């Protein structure tokens, strides 16, 4: 095992003029450096493996979405297409029209993001997310109107070429992402925007158990 002049000088400074003790010190330092190098190398390889696995999973998810003959079969718990939803045009788009769209079309990608976020909100907050998602569906339904998805969006593969409707969906993706993951003001763990949409959680003096008494001046 070779060592540098720098190691030799450092050992003398640390140990003194005892050759055997200096050699032991040098060997321990070399082994320590080797251990740290191996540890760093393993850490780098682990991070790379993690990134590779994330890419592999993401690619599999994209392929699953692209190849799905029934798009909404991937999102069976969605409130946006439940019987309670009155967003009829949006429901038709998600339950039928989108299955006719090219698998690589950007509209499928952006809706998959929105519906995945909705799935997370349902898992984490259950019924508390229902009213928000129904209102979100209503907003998209209004924006959709009589828009011809097949003519406009079926083969568009880039966000740069997206129409105003797809841009609206992107806005909703961003808003829901903020509600779920940037939540310093959450009340009881529930995003405030969910509570604001839910009539059953709104504070009402008439139902709070207190009587309001007006005092005469």
Structure characteristics:
217 residues, UBA domain-containing protein, elongated, mainly alpha
List SSEs in N-to-C order.
HHHHHHHH
What structural class results from the helix and strand content?
mainly alpha
Question: Helical content, roughly?
Answer: 55-70%
What value does the Rg take, in angstroms? Answer: 30 Å
Number of domains: 2
Brief overview:
Helices cover 60% and strands 0% of the residues. With 217 residues, it is an all-alpha fold.
Describe this structure as you would to a colleague:
- The protein has 217 residues and is mainly alpha-helical.
- The chain folds into two domains: 5-66; 69-201, no CATH class.
- The chain is 60% helix and 0% strand.
- The chain has eight helices and no strands.
- Helix 3 crosses helix 5 (130-144).
- The longest helix is centred in the N-terminal third of the chain and has 49 residues, at 19-67.
- The radius of gyration is 30 Å and the shape is elongated.
- The mean pLDDT is 83.
- This is UBA domain-containing protein.
